[in-house]
Amino acid sequence: MKGNLKLSSLFIALLGVFLFTTSFQNLYAQNAKKNKVRLKAYYVKIMNEEVYFDINASSRIDNKNVNVANIDLTVYNEYDDEKIELGTIKTDMNGAGRCVVKDFNSIKPDSTNSYNILISFKGNEDFSRASKRLTFRNANIKANLITKDSINYITASLLDVSKDSLIGDASLTVQVQRLFQPLFVGEEFYITDESGTIVVPVEEGIPGVDGNLTIEVVLSDSDDYGTVKAIVIAPIGKPIVDESTFDQRKMWSPRNKTPIFLLIFPNIIIFGMLGLIVYLMFNLFKISKSKTKTNIYLKQKT
Amino acid sequence: MKNYDKLLNDLAPRKFGKRGAIWTIFLIVIIVAGLIAYIDQVIKGQVVTNMRDYALWGIYISNFVFFVATSFVGSVTVAILRLTNNTWRTPLVRIAEIISLAAIVMAGLTIMIDMGRPDRLLNLFIHARLQSPITWDVIIVPTYIVFSFLLLYFPLLPDLAILKKHYNKTKPKFSKWYGKLALNWTGSNAQKAIQEKSIKIIAIMIIPIGILLQTIDAWLFSTTYRVGWDSTNMGAYFISGAFVAGVGALVTMVWIIRKVRKLESYITDSHFDRLGKLLVLACLIYLYFNINEYLLPIFTAPVQEDIHLNALVSGEYAPLFWFAQIVGLILPIIILLFKKGRKPLPMFIVGFMVVIGSWWKRYIIVTPTLLHPFLPIEGVPESWHHYFPSLHEWLITAATLAMALLIITIMVRYLPVIPIQRTADEQEFLKTNKNTES
To answer: Residue A222: what are its φ and ψ, rounded to 5°?
Structure first.
């Protein structure tokens, strides 16, 4: 009886400790200070291709800027007190995500012809809710390749679509697309004239696959228009000669393309060695089968 | 006849005493500890080691290179001395052959230990690329094991037959085994002719095979474009280093076996003197290659090479680097240049210094280079920039060294460490010569 009482008291005490610590944790969790998420957003339009929003999420934790990975963000188009959802994304390990809008016409402007985008984060256990607003106007770049007096030029015009007017005094960059970093054509940037146009000569001899240069005309991160990019495929480059040894028998080729000399000589050595080993084993066999005359010391011992 | 009986009693294998038994148990304990660590490594993966993206070759590979180097003693001491008909080699050759076989067998095992997935070992043969030095290594190591075994086995045949007779009455079980291994050896002219011819072929062939083995081992490194490895000197550098490690190991083992088995009348001071001269020659050649290897890059070093050399000469690896150079090379040369330094005990100490120095030297060749790549790896933890073996690695490596010593111990226990037949032949020859002269 006494033993039962002790056991039940112990059980109640343990249960008490468990419940207390659980509720304490809940209290602590409610009071815990959540970190703030900082959102950055960029609007990018590629002519005749796609429109997307590049978004970065970061947070200041322990006096360090940390990328916030794996959070869900929703992108809305704000229009007449309405919020039209354009898509949702999840940030990657670098806290980055891209929301692609397939049809630009699905985004609606306000009365001032500005497009208002809201990026919203609902918050989670670690981070409090956050949002970011982005406003831009629609601009187009029309770019062409022309040849005058055997010199190739890129001409580009920057147009405000809502006003249907060309934009002067804006800086455009002309560059050739490359794997790691674009290659500037001429100056780092060119300012559009009164008619919103630039004319940039393209120097000869820029290498390109099959002689094609992918030339970009870019309005970079403009306050009013975001980033707008027009791409021109120009067959004016110096063709890159493929010097690949992929199909040749080289030291770095796969095993089915081993150089012939490396098949012949090492195999001669390998099979020569194997032949010798077989011969020596055979000699051991011959020794075991040949026992005619006894050695002097063995005789003496026996 | 009396002399022959004494010779047989002196040279026939003998049961271990108390010290021998303790030594064997000690080795077995280390091996078991290593085996447990290895099983854990296989289960958990190589995360239990301290090898990471930078130091992807660690203590296992340096240990492998050490074993490969030590196995060279079979080619040098045995084959060269045999072919040049140096009669003083007789009491030393079998010990050298035993070390050679034990070392190369353990080299083969060590390389398997370094494999993350040892169950895929067969893929090395099935998917072998002849362009890869790894493939050459996979081919040459088993070949060298076979030739080392045959180099030990062929000269053993007459001795095994003698032991069969010797133990016929006292230990019939032993006698039966020796008889089986002796392959019906009677010492007939036909058998002798086949044996001598075979030994000559092996003695000739094991020299190029040994050189190939060391060179391929060196090319494993020098075909990789890395600071400290990218050198045309590497093949010769490794061969000379193997010469030093091999003869150093031989000197040490010869002294221990001589003392334990009381073979002072067979392995004399003169043998140590000659081995000392061989070792000092090896050390001088290796010193020359070391100067080539380290001095020239000091003049021509690009930035990365400079960082690497600084780490060796005055940085993180300086204590080990100077230990390997001074204790493993320079001090032995100074000691061995004096006749007193070539006496048995000093020779043992020097041999031991050389072996320890040689082991750390391989560590110095492998690890610091990996920590100084031409293209640094981005975004790795700071700890990956340094390497020191984990407990698992130490246990497994100690076990491989213990296993090599156990193979040698077992062979010393059951085989005549000094060729009985050949020693008897030589003593008979000397006696006949003396009689003729008188």
So the answer is: -75, 145
Chain B neighbors of A260, CB-CB under 8 A: none
Q: How far is B130 from chain A (nearest CA, A)?
A: 7
Q: Give the distance from residue A61's alpha carbon to the nearest chain B alpha carbon, in angstroms.
A: 20
- Please give the ipTM for the structure prediction: 0.90
**Considering the domain boundaries, does residue B347 fall inside one?**
yes
Which residue in the set A255, A290, A300 is minimally distant from B191, CB to CB? Answer: A290
Chain A: give the shortest CA distance to residue B36, in Å: 36
Q: Which residues of A touch B (CB under 8 A)?
A: 251-255, 258-259, 262-263, 266-267, 270, 273, 276-277, 279-280, 283-284, 286-298, 300-302
CA distance B373 to B53: 11
Domain ranges of chain A: 37-136, 139-239, 255-296
CATH number of the domain bearing residue B289: 1.20.1630.10
Cα A121 to Cα A76: distance, rounded to the nearest angstrom: 11
Best probe of the A interface among B4, B129, B222, by most A CBs < 10 A, is: B129
**Is B229 part of a structural domain of the chain?**
yes
pLDDT at A296: 47
Question: Domain A37-136 belongs to what architecture?
Answer: Sandwich (2.60)
CB nearest to A258's CB, from B129, B157, B184: B129
Please list, in sequence order, all residues whose beta carbon lies within 8 angstroms of the beta carbon of residue A18, skipping any fewer than 6 positions away.
none
Burial of A222 (0-12, 13-18, 19+ CB in 10 A): middle
> Fold for domain A139-239?
Immunoglobulin-like (2.60.40)
Domain count, chain B: 1
Nearest chain A Cα to B206, which residue?
A273
Q: Is residue B181 part of a domain?
A: no
Residue of B nearest to A267 (CA): B130
Residue of A261, A278, A279, A290 for testing the chain B interface, max B β-carbons within 10 Å? A290
Range of the domain at B233: 15-135+208-374+387-422
pLDDT tens, residue by residue, B7-66: 898 999 988 899 999 999 999 999 999 999 999 999 999 999 999 999 999 999 999 999
Q: How far is CA B154 from CA A100, B157, B158, B282, in A?
A: 78, 6, 9, 28
Q: Is residue B6 part of a domain?
A: no
Instruction: Provide the whole-model pTM.
Output: 0.75
Inter-chain touch B187–A276, beta carbons under 8 Å: no
Is pLDDT at B182 greater than 80 in this prediction? yes
